[in-house]
Structures are given as C-alpha cells and as structure tokens.
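#dry-run=false #mode=assembly
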Amino acid sequence: MSWIETSYMGRRGVARGAQGQTHEITEAVQGEYRYMYGPYVAPVLRIRPGDVVAAHTHDAFGGAIKTEADLPSKVLNMPFVNPQNGPVAVEGAEKGDVLAVRILSIVPRGPQPAGTTALIPEFGGLVATPTTAMLNAPLAEKVKKMEVTTAGVKFSDRITLPYEPFVGTLGVSPEIEAVSSLQPDYWGGNMDLPDVAPGAIVYFPVQHKDAYLYMGDCHGRQGDGELCGVAVEIPAVLTVQVDLIKGWSIPGVRLETEDFIMSVGSARPMEDAARMAYRDLIRWLVSDYGFDEAEAYFLCTQAGRVRVGNMVDPKYTLGASMLKSYIR
Amino acid sequence: MSWIETSYMGRRGVARGAQGQTHEITEAVQGEYRYMYGPYVAPVLRIRPGDVVAAHTHDAFGGAIKTEADLPSKVLNMPFVNPQNGPVAVEGAEKGDVLAVRILSIVPRGPQPAGTTALIPEFGGLVATPTTAMLNAPLAEKVKKMEVTTAGVKFSDRITLPYEPFVGTLGVSPEIEAVSSLQPDYWGGNMDLPDVAPGAIVYFPVQHKDAYLYMGDCHGRQGDGELCGVAVEIPAVLTVQVDLIKGWSIPGVRLETEDFIMSVGSARPMEDAARMAYRDLIRWLVSDYGFDEAEAYFLCTQAGRVRVGNMVDPKYTLGASMLKSYIR
Amino acid sequence: MSWIETSYMGRRGVARGAQGQTHEITEAVQGEYRYMYGPYVAPVLRIRPGDVVAAHTHDAFGGAIKTEADLPSKVLNMPFVNPQNGPVAVEGAEKGDVLAVRILSIVPRGPQPAGTTALIPEFGGLVATPTTAMLNAPLAEKVKKMEVTTAGVKFSDRITLPYEPFVGTLGVSPEIEAVSSLQPDYWGGNMDLPDVAPGAIVYFPVQHKDAYLYMGDCHGRQGDGELCGVAVEIPAVLTVQVDLIKGWSIPGVRLETEDFIMSVGSARPMEDAARMAYRDLIRWLVSDYGFDEAEAYFLCTQAGRVRVGNMVDPKYTLGASMLKSYIR
Amino acid sequence: MSWIETSYMGRRGVARGAQGQTHEITEAVQGEYRYMYGPYVAPVLRIRPGDVVAAHTHDAFGGAIKTEADLPSKVLNMPFVNPQNGPVAVEGAEKGDVLAVRILSIVPRGPQPAGTTALIPEFGGLVATPTTAMLNAPLAEKVKKMEVTTAGVKFSDRITLPYEPFVGTLGVSPEIEAVSSLQPDYWGGNMDLPDVAPGAIVYFPVQHKDAYLYMGDCHGRQGDGELCGVAVEIPAVLTVQVDLIKGWSIPGVRLETEDFIMSVGSARPMEDAARMAYRDLIRWLVSDYGFDEAEAYFLCTQAGRVRVGNMVDPKYTLGASMLKSYIR
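#status=ok
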C-alpha cells in the first residue's frame, strides 16, 4: 500500500487519491502567463478532483536571461516577473475547503544551460534592499547560467550539485485580492520552500470559488533561505495531481510527505514566520494526533524541525515539521 | 502669500495649487464602497488636476458597530472591512508622475456617538496575532463608543481629548495588484499616520493610468502607533484638493506641511520602516536641498524626527521628517 | 509650588526632593573612567539620597577625536569607548528599590569645537553592520566637528541647531553582570533617549546594593533614532540630583517631566521596544492612575506618544509617554 | 586516517589534535558554579592545548526541579540559573587566537528521571515575554520529567525519542564584560545549537588571556528552535578536548564536523542571525576554499543549509553550513 492512501488526500480527498483525467498546459494553451494570484482573470483550464495537470512553466525571468550577458536590470520589466501558469479552476472547490496538490514530477525543459541564478541590484538576503534600506552601494550585477538535467546541476567545472527540484511558487487565489506572484502568504504563492517537491502533497486553504490554482517558478535546487534571492531557476514541465478536501479547515499552507507533516508560515521578521508555522503545527497535533496543547508544545520543543525556505521575498517562509514516526 | 504657493504642489503641480471644480462623492454617488486598492474597478469619478473632492467616508467598520454591544466578531465580515471611496480617476496621470493630495478638512458625520474603538481578538500591538502567533488566550473583546465633534473626543466622563483628525487610509492604485485596504505600502493605503491631516499635502507615486485615488478610514484622533489597532474611527466628510506633478519621481509616499517635509516607510520589522523613511528623506535632501549624502545623513542624525504611525497593520508605518527652518 | 514636589521623587523619595550635599566628580576624582555597567569595581563616591553630583563627563570617544582628521578606526580602541563616570554608591539602596535621578543641567566643557559626530564603518542605522550583516562595501569614514555652546550647535555655516542637551548613557549596575556601556537595557545604560534631559527625573530599578549609578555620554542634541549612530557628542559637566524610593517596584526605566510620564523599552526588533514601553505604561496607568487595563490600552491607543531614542545600539530604545493633563 | 587530522584543529592546533592530560571537574572541584561568562573569577583549572576535560555539569536549573511538582517560579532564583563549569584557563591563549573545543562525549548523570522540560511563565517562543511584551495572560506553568539514558529520551508512554545530546552553553569569556550564561553571542554562550554535539569541533574567538572556557547546560536532545525555551535538560558528564589555534582570526563561533563546516550567528530579529551566519560562511569560503565572493554567495544560495538553534534566548542562534563534499 502506498503512503498516499494513508495521506490526508488519500483518506479525505473527494477523489481519494484516484487519478482522473490528465491535462496539459502547454505554452500555447496558457497563452498569457500570469503575474498575480487573484480572481480577476478567466481560468485557463477547468479540472475535477483527482485530475492530473502537466504545466509547461517558464523560469522566474520568463526566459529573458538567455546568457550571462543578459543582465536582469536590462531585460526584466518589473512587475512582470515570476510568470505563472493558471489559474486552474477546480470543480466544486469553495471557500473553507482544502485544495490538495501532489507534486508528481519536475523535468527541466528548453535549451541548455537551462538554469539561471543572478545577483540583482538591491535584492537578496545579504544586501541592502528597498525595504532594508541602506546607504551602502549595491553589489555588481551578475548572471550565472548552469546546465541542469535530472542528473545534476552543473554549478561549476569543480562542483556538480544534486538535482533536487521543487516548485518555488504554488497556491490558490486570495478571495478578493490580486497579489504579486513574488509574494508568499497563507494561500501559498512564492514560498520558495524546498519541501514543495516531488513526493510531497501540499494543502492550501481555498479562498475563492473553484480555488484557482496557480503554479510556476520551478527550481533545479536551492539552499536554505535562497540566499541571494535567485535559486537555480529553470523552465520545466511540472506535473501535479489535484484533489479537494471538504470539511477540513486550515489557516494556512500545510504539507505532507511519507515521513513528516509540516506547517508553513510566511511573515517578517523571520521569528514571526517560525511562530506561525509552529503554532499551526501544535494545533494540528492537538486536533488530529491526540495531544493536548502543552504536550504538543513540549514535543515540538524536543523534536520539531524547521526548514528556512526563503529569507528574501516580501515575506520570509519557514516550515515547521514533525516526523510521522513520532506521532503514530 | 500662503505656504501652499511655495509647496511642491504649488510650484510644480499642473494646477499650481489653483482650485478647480468641486465634486462630492456622497454615499449614493459612491454606491459600492471598495475594499481594495487596485485597478480592476471602474472609477466613481473623473477629475482634473486642481479639483476638489468631498467624500462621504464610512468608518473602518462600515458603520456596523453602532453600540458597545455590537461586537466586531459578530458584525464584521472579513475581508470586507475598511471601506474606501473611489477610485477617483485623475486626468493625465501616468505611471511615474506624482499625485498631490492636499487635505482640506475632515468633519465628522452621522449620528452620535460617532467614534468607535475596540479590542478585536488577535488584533493589535500588544496581543498575539495570526502573524505574531502565540499560544496565549486572546483578550476579551470590547467596544467603546465616543462622542466626536470638532470640539473634541469624549473619551470618558473624565477625559476629553483634542479633535485632531486625519485620514487613516489614502493612496493610489498599484499597477497590477489589487491589495486589501487594510495594508499600507509604497503607494499609500492604510498608513494610519496622524500627519496625513488638514494642513498637509501628501504625495503619492502614480503606478497606473489616471492614478485611481482611494480614500477613507478617517480618525478623530490617534496616539502614536495606534496601539490596540483601532483609532477613534469616524464616518466623515473628507475634503481634499488633488493636483498632479509631472517629472517628479518618488519611490514612496512623501508629505509636506508648512513646517516640515516627511518621507514615509511601511515595512516589518519596524526598523525597516524607519530605514525606508530615513533613506528617502536623505535622498530628498540631496536631490532638492543641496546636501551631499554624508551631510544629509549627519543632519538627520542630529535633527531628524520620527513619527510612529501604526504598529498594528500588515506593515508598520513610520514617517521621518525634517523642519523646513533647518534646510531653507 | 514646583512640580518637583508632586513628582514621584518629591512625594516618595527618601529625601522628598530636598537637596543634600553637593559632590563633584572631576577627572582627577574619577581617575579611571568605566566602560561597563557592573558591580565589580569600587565606587568613586558615596552619597546620600538628596545629594547633588556634578560629573565631568568625557564624550563617547574619550576625547580622542580632536579634529576631523582623527578617524575613529585609527584613534579608538574597542571596547574602550563610551567612558562613564561612577559608579556612585547611594546609601541605603537595595535591590527592588527605585533610584531617582533628576537631571539639573548639562554644560559643555573643554576646547571648541566641542561637538563630534562621525560615520564609523559598519556602524549606524542606514548601513550594514556586524549584526545586520551584508556584503555591501562600507561607507567612507568621516568625522564632523561642531562648535557647541548653550547658545546652539553650529552644524554648518548655513545651519545652527538648538542646544537641546541630554544624557546618552545613564543607569544603575546590573545585579551580577558587567555590561558594556554601549548597551541599553532595563537598568538604563546607553539609551540615547533625548528625553533624559534637564527637566526630567529618571527612575531606575535598583539591582545591586548601593545602586551603583553610572553616567556619561552627554549629547548637545540628537534627532530621533540617532541615525548614523553618533549624536552631537560632547564632554560636559553633568549635574544631577539623586534620590531613593523605597517600596516602588518597576520592571524597567521610567521617566517623568512636568508634562508627561514615560516608560522606556530597549529591545530588537524595534516593535519589541515599543511593546515593552507601552505595556509598562499601561501597567503604570493601571497601578497609579485609576484605569482598568482595557481603558488604559484604549487611552494609549488614542493619546499615547512614542519617541524613538536610538535605532543603532545593541538594543533599540523607545519611550512611550502620556500627558499628565489627560490623567489627572 | 581520522577526519580529525584534517580538521582545522588537527592541522593548525598547537597540539595538532594529540591528546594531552585528562582533567576532571567534579562538583567538588568546581565548588561554586558560575552564572556569567566573564573574566572576574579565578579559573577552576589550568590546562594545556590538547588536554581533555571531563566536567560534571548541572542541568540548567541547577538540579532544583526534581519532580513535576517543583514549579520553576517556586524553586528558581533569577538570575542564578544555567550554572556553568569553569572557567578553565588555557595556557598560551591570547586575544585574537581561536580556541578549539572538540566534543567527545555527553553522558547523563544523576538519578532518573534525569531529564526536565517546563513551561515557564513569560518564557518561550510561542508566548508573550518581557521583551515581546503583550497583555495576554501567561500559560499555566508546567513541568515534565523524562527518563534519559544513552538509549533514548522517554518523552511519554507512547513516544521515545533518540538520545541526541549536545551542549547548550559553551564558550569563552568576553574581554571585559561579564555576561549572563543565558545569553549567546559571538564568543559562544547559550547558543542552544544541536550541532554542538559529539563529533563536532567548535571554534571560539579568544577575547581574554587564557581564554577562560565555560561549559554547561547539556541537553539530551532538542528540536529546532528549542520552542518552549526548555530542551531535555540533563546533568551530565561532558568530555571535551581543547586545543589552541594561533594565527586564525574569526569574528564569531565556527564549527566543523566530518561532513560540514558551519558559521554561527546570534542576534534578533532572526533574519539578522541568519545574515551573520551566512556572511561569515561566505567569507570563510573565500578565505580558505578558493571562491570569490560572488561564487561563494551563489553556492550558499544553491547549497547552504540553515539550522535554527534557539528562538527563545536573549539572542536567537542560527547556524549556516556547507557540506565539505561540495568544496573539496
């Protein structure tokens, strides 16, 4: 028996994990890519719970950085960055439900070198920004292109890093806002959290009728914090299975793998993201795993794990997790 | 000669401070009030630079809290709070321009007690919130109604506070986002900054064609920080004069009175809001007042002033100011 | 009747505001100046409640920056900066008491130009520091000397700023720690708060037998936040009157003038300093002024005032105050 | 060949990893345990580089919490918590050197249940504290005792967690300060970082002659962030080998295992701790591993790892690490 059958999706999803129809969102199908998570555009696709979607995603720069000579300040046109596929309307989804998105696979596409990272002026975790505003001069702008295949990320002649892909930006539409795809929040978005990877099911609190799933911004890999602000950005074919859970109310993004459950928080300062994540994890332990609050608080103290997703986006994203082996 | 003639609006505005036509946005004219700053709705009014607009604003609760028995958790329907008048389209405004909004007057309207404040669960500067998430139990919910006239705010039998009204939420539309009217940002919005008051001209960086001015959320008065999250909220007739400045590029909100110039920053943590505000003030001193950067930095160190607007909204807002008498 | 008689010092001090003996701590009396707030050195002086002390303070650089050519990185020897007079032992003071320090006067001393400010590499509110660590290159180091008299601070040929002196660093010894005089905390220290000025009485929670009062780091004036980290640093004759209050337990620094009461918080991030200050102000209103907690929270929301002392020291310092006219 | 020979300690230590004399600091030898990291007490022991020290540590409560009925608020006497063994004087150590401390073993001692955790009022990562000051009522105080052996931590009848011990508080004396053992900083102290464990060598920047090594506060295990503020606190026999490295200047704590190198940052807000750690890691990669700054920044972005040590102490502690396999 696959762990999927015992997952929240498998046990409580409308489709109970059974795969439905498969859809492909090619570049042609998508047409105009989206730069916001919001309800003000028509869905590119309508699906049913259980359906599988393969989306042809662009990289975060919309493919504009083809060589190391294509400087971001020259080729990017803010705020038109981080293009997204979608929205995908999910039949039956209503505010208060949970959308389950199982990441099936992420395969790089397009010409090599497929991977891009960059030092962008006034952007990143170790430089002054428009928000952490300082008088110091910015670093020199710089682009690094990398060959990325499922065999590895060729960081340099000397270093090849494992291909550990994940989805940087994924989520559902807010109820009435239309928010930049650069921002993470309780509905998902630009979380840049490496656990949103093949092998995981991500749960989003539906805010708007039909959920309106957006997805994009795949990364060939990333260190904790996405330090300079730009991971190994790749165009990819991202394949997900979508299910819908009725009667499960969650305040923000949750995630599940075969080995652990995780609550996600996005906020500034960083300790607030950690607080959000851990408080939700405690409440989850209380509601579903038979702990009282103090015991759950103690267990997180002694066995909780924290992953720093990003420390560069408008809100920082952290995940707090607990091994399933401890709470069975 | 009025100081208005020497203001940025008076010297550089398309209308040079001359008053044009007067418009009134009554409740009937407004029809549906707005809960977002964004470009996705039709303007309620089109005006020309120099025109005056008198808007009949609702209080932040849309008038739903009529007595101290009307608890927020009962009568409010999130996210439909902080209703705004507008958008007002300003002819000729384009991305890169500056919209000048001179606050002429704020007069309470509606039945007494017109003023409302409240302790709302998990909201405020001295309580755990969904963001600064904690396990402590929330405070008891509580509403306080106050009689508010231009003569004063009757806080209690013992205390009458001066009527020092200002506009809590004011700004222009983002370029492609539609952002909750609860949020402040570089385009304005829910800054809750007491200097946005009669006697001030506020400058906003236009992001979208016709600017799309929104306004609402008048306060009879407020302490620094808007500590519990709810000022003396009043419905009001808010009268502003609008002008348009071409060829002035500003990165965020600026403000001017007869006595000082101010740059505004909105961010978390609070020091980032202070950094944003002060950096912009320094750049303003350099560009317009003949200082080099080091001298401007020194002058702000020795004579800068900081006003804490709010420490409760999704971003905290601070203003950094310099007396004009020092920089003439 | 002077307001002093109605102050906490006047009403509850052991000396009830009556002036006792006058002491002078000249450079010769002080001998070795101190770089820590702690109990591990012998007092330079023993006094009784009511006594007046005139201390000959050094500037924060110990006078090492005599000209604009004396760069901090050359002439300073960390951690031997911010020299303090003291400790002064106060007879009868015990842990749990309050030490009242009334600032009587601050007069510049020494040769002109007596005032110094500077851009010090990796120090200040708008630059990367060892703590807010970044990869940006530091600003150029720079010193500015200013003539400072009680008539004004000659900032430049063009600008003379008012002489508004205050004490940058003032407080009592921690119980068992010896903490750098660069740091502010609940016992006082390097608060850099402009309200610690002639006309104010500052209250410190005694931690150690005899209190061990330290003082130094006078400023000719300063803007809110002490932005570049260096105010108008001056050597001065600082005259204070000291009293002792038994039976008053306070968790941190409080302050009183004729017009207002203030609670002080020192913490990072800045919102935590604001929370500390405002929470203590609310508790003070509850314990001494007849408010219940919700009313005090409401009053601070509508009429509280925040002063940003510093945004540059190891902890940021803010003061939250309430006008006495509202709470009589 | 052991990896120790290729470690910084093995290659550059005065003793080159060779073990010298073994010393034992029993409770009798220690006599008075210490509550501060500072130079104002006499060393309990003098050793030479290469020597091994076995210290009989107390738990963070000095053993005062013997049963679940011993509430912290009753049995603790602030600031006398987190007792430390030491200081140990290391011959030849001078300011500017590096002290290498290899953790050899941590064995629980004393009667069972040896492990203690607790909910202490106004302390912890998910509650209001004196610093993140709020008006919410504190949680109920609570103690949990656990049997701890090298076989495991008996969290409850249902859950036994792996024994993964580490040293919570370890470091050298500041130069002139004496700082509470509750605080972490660039010299070490209460970092509560689970990587400070058997198998690691920790490097501290010496500030004072003879280094003055302090150690204590062993934990049977801990989750990331030490969420409630109290790990599995145990009394233990902690055995370390100490070496001294001349000619290596480091700005803060660094750490090495067979698999990775790590830089440690302690600061608030949490992002500043992450910035400190990552900036130092980048500088380390540049100075010792042949990267230029941009390449090191890129590598940390794609392959850096962050461990959240504590989010509860006066400063939060994070470690940023890089696998040695990537940088050989």
